[in-house]
Design goal:
It contains seven helices and nine strands, in the order αβαβαββαβαβαββαβ. The strands form two sheets. Strands 3-4-2-1-5-6-8 form a seven-stranded parallel β-sheet. Strands 7-9 form a two-stranded antiparallel sheet. The longest helix is centred in the middle third of the chain and has 15 residues. Helix 2 crosses helix 7. Strand 5, helix 5 and strand 6 form a beta-alpha-beta unit.
Length: 195
């Protein structure tokens, strides 16, 4: 992907190495299901990991006229995240449901595989998980860029640095600033690939 990768491969004895970038940048992303966007602002928290759901929920607490969709990265966490969201919703007077019921609730758990691209296509803002905790390394922001959506990522993107270097107009945030950044980022500030 990068000159750093090339140097590492050389140290291992590889020859004739070409830096070609990330193959994810040439993938065509396809929608498999068309959702009807609700009238409220739709915030999609994609590919979340342990410890991130609470951060995102607490940051959503003061956002007005919006709906939050949480899409955990790993299906084996669906039940755990379901309990986290349900408890938060009860304590903070939000309605809560699952994606099978559409967008009628304030907070929605997406407990199905293969829906993230479909949801990015109708999102107003995206919070990209795997980047607010320091042991994951981030996730692919190109999916969000493909749909030209405003993107907020955490700062722990060590597995995605080369891809983020190809992008502009996104926000790096953290636990202390996510609420402010969700309010600040506007629909016209969509992430895009640099020219």
């Amino acid at each position: 992907q990068t000159e750093i990768d090339k140097d590492r491969l050389k140290q291992l004895g590889a020859k004739n190495i070409i830096v070609s970038g990330n193959i994810k940048s040439v993938v065509e992303y396809k929608i498999t299901k068309h959702y009807q966007k609700p009238k409220e602002e739709l915030i999609v928290a994609g590919s979340t990991h342990k410890g991130e759901e609470e951060l995102i929920l607490n940051s959503f607490k003061n956002i007005k006229n919006a709906k939050l969709l949480i899409v955990p990265r790993h299906p084996e966490r669906f039940k755990e995240v379901d309990k986290i969201i349900e408890k938060f919703a009860i304590q903070n007077n939000f309605s809560y449901g699952k994606i099978e019921n559409g967008f009628k609730n304030d907070i929605i758990l997406v407990d199905k595989i293969g829906e993230l691209l479909n949801l990015y296509s109708v999102a107003d803002k995206v919070v990209l998980g795997g980047s607010f905790v320091d042991n994951v390394g981030g996730h692919n922001p190109l999916e969000v860029a493909y749909f030209k959506k405003p993107l907020i990522s955490g700062k722990y993107i060590f597995n995605q640095i080369a891809i983020f270097d190809e992008l502009e107009s996104f926000i790096f945030s953290d636990f202390d600033n996510l609420t402010k950044d969700l309010e600040k980022i506007q629909n016209y500030q969509h992430v895009k690939i640099k020219n």
